[in-house]
Amino acid sequence: MANSVPASLKPFNTFGVEATCNELISFNDEPSIQSWLKAEKPALDSLFILGGGSNLLLLGHIPLIFLQANIQGIEYLEQNNGKDEVWVKVGAGVNWHQLVLDTLDKGYSGLENLSLIPGNVGAAPIQNIGAYGVELQERFINLQAIELATGHIQEFSAEDCQFGYRDSIFKKELKGRFVITQVTLRLNKNLQPHIEYGPLKQELEGETSITAKKVSDAVIAIRQSKLPDPAQLGNAGSFFKNPIVTEEQYQMLLDAFPELVAYSVGSGHYKIAAGWLIEKAGLKGYRQGDAGVHEKQALVLVNYGHASGQDILQVAGQVRDKVLELFGVKLEPEVWIIGEQQIFLS
Ligand SMILES: Cc1cc2nc3c(=O)[nH]c(=O)nc-3n(C[C@H](O)[C@H](O)[C@H](O)COP(=O)(O)OP(=O)(O)OC[C@H]3O[C@@H](n4cnc5c(N)ncnc54)[C@H](O)[C@@H]3O)c2cc1C
């Protein structure tokens, strides 16, 4: 059943900024979403889908209705296909890290590198969450979503989702058109470890028998040492995406900055570490009032206490401008910036 709650969004965003919306409605199952859509017939541009609020920068009052698919449930589906796999079908409202822990408790692997990513399962496909050498798409089977315009349930395969680096069709042509209600992922009974990523390899050095739980513990230890905990210091993780540049741009940057941190992503393109650019621009630890760049991780913008969304946006603009001026590289936000309408830093 639909459940209307007060519209303060401060507890619903990990930046911890004060923000409000017209209404916040949480749903526990698919039929209640469908009934509400049928009864209200809302305009699509009056709605915003909220997950755990860990990838959002909210700017003051947002004149929209926020909908939350708080659908619970983790169901393991045995596959009799002769392969070493089990599928897990998960409600959109399940906390992502709780899902990872549940799969590990059951003895399954596949999600361990994605431990401790904040947010809910329903948001994970939106930007194809990724960390420590693994992206959601490698584990993705399908998702179920309700089309907001019609209330119809639709299934999306991995191909339908058009996953890319921090990207999917839900950030492009289907932006704001579907609410994801269930996600099905592929797990393994036997571990196929992905521990090539430098710091992870280092953390696991000396381990004789690698298990999924040990990989998860190592990922958690690294994340806790590097990233601020939103419960202590408001933030939304990486604020900017790592920019992808052409080989020509990469060579020019490398000539000017031989210590540049970048790696090839194939087809003549290179991904540059945005954190390195920001640090090199002298902005690591930069602070303006209560908004700033984290002192250990330059890619993370933080709220030291009472910053508003606008204060953080201003710092983000300064970071973007300085990086553009020094390196000729334009940083794009990874977080969703939501005010009277969705805003891009351009
Ligand atoms: C400390 C920290 C570390 C982080 N580390 C990582 C990391 O390593 N890798 C990574 O990829 N991300 C990382 N993030 C970003 C964030 O955790 C992910 O993007 C996460 O998937 C967001 O989930 P959420 O439920 O909080 O979504 P929200 O922030 O609430 O929403 C994000 C987007 O998803 C949409 N959305 C949410 N739920 C649904 C739904 N059910 N149906 C349709 N649309 C929906 C929203 O409309 C919005 O556009 C980090 C964030 C923090 C704070």
TrEMBL record:
<dbReference type="InterPro" id="IPR006094">
    <property type="entry name" value="Oxid_FAD_bind_N"/>
</dbReference>
<keyword id="KW-0131">Cell cycle</keyword>
<dbReference type="Pfam" id="PF01565">
    <property type="entry name" value="FAD_binding_4"/>
</dbReference>
<comment type="function">
    <text>Cell wall formation.</text>
</comment>
<feature type="active site">
    <location>
        <position position="334"/>
    </location>
</feature>
<dbReference type="InterPro" id="IPR036318">
    <property type="entry name" value="FAD-bd_PCMH-like_sf"/>
</dbReference>
<dbReference type="GO" id="GO:0009252">
    <property type="term" value="P:peptidoglycan biosynthetic process"/>
</dbReference>
<dbReference type="InterPro" id="IPR003170">
    <property type="entry name" value="MurB"/>
</dbReference>
<keyword id="KW-0274">FAD</keyword>
<keyword id="KW-0521">NADP</keyword>
<dbReference type="Pfam" id="PF02873">
    <property type="entry name" value="MurB_C"/>
</dbReference>
<dbReference type="InterPro" id="IPR036635">
    <property type="entry name" value="MurB_C_sf"/>
</dbReference>
<feature type="active site" description="Proton donor">
    <location>
        <position position="238"/>
    </location>
</feature>
<keyword id="KW-0133">Cell shape</keyword>
<dbReference type="GO" id="GO:0051301">
    <property type="term" value="P:cell division"/>
</dbReference>
<keyword id="KW-0132">Cell division</keyword>
<dbReference type="InterPro" id="IPR011601">
    <property type="entry name" value="MurB_C"/>
</dbReference>
<feature type="domain" description="FAD-binding PCMH-type">
    <location>
        <begin position="17"/>
        <end position="190"/>
    </location>
</feature>
<dbReference type="InterPro" id="IPR016167">
    <property type="entry name" value="FAD-bd_PCMH_sub1"/>
</dbReference>
<dbReference type="InterPro" id="IPR016169">
    <property type="entry name" value="FAD-bd_PCMH_sub2"/>
</dbReference>
<comment type="similarity">
    <text>Belongs to the MurB family.</text>
</comment>
<dbReference type="GO" id="GO:0008762">
    <property type="term" value="F:UDP-N-acetylmuramate dehydrogenase activity"/>
</dbReference>
<dbReference type="GO" id="GO:0071949">
    <property type="term" value="F:FAD binding"/>
</dbReference>
<dbReference type="GO" id="GO:0071555">
    <property type="term" value="P:cell wall organization"/>
</dbReference>
<protein>
    <recommendedName>
        <fullName>UDP-N-acetylenolpyruvoylglucosamine reductase</fullName>
        <ecNumber>1.3.1.98</ecNumber>
    </recommendedName>
</protein>
<comment type="pathway">
    <text>Cell wall biogenesis; peptidoglycan biosynthesis.</text>
</comment>
<dbReference type="GO" id="GO:0005829">
    <property type="term" value="C:cytosol"/>
</dbReference>
<keyword id="KW-0961">Cell wall biogenesis/degradation</keyword>
<feature type="active site">
    <location>
        <position position="166"/>
    </location>
</feature>
<keyword id="KW-0963">Cytoplasm</keyword>
<keyword id="KW-0573">Peptidoglycan synthesis</keyword>
<dbReference type="InterPro" id="IPR016166">
    <property type="entry name" value="FAD-bd_PCMH"/>
</dbReference>
<keyword id="KW-0560">Oxidoreductase</keyword>
<dbReference type="GO" id="GO:0008360">
    <property type="term" value="P:regulation of cell shape"/>
</dbReference>
<keyword id="KW-0285">Flavoprotein</keyword>
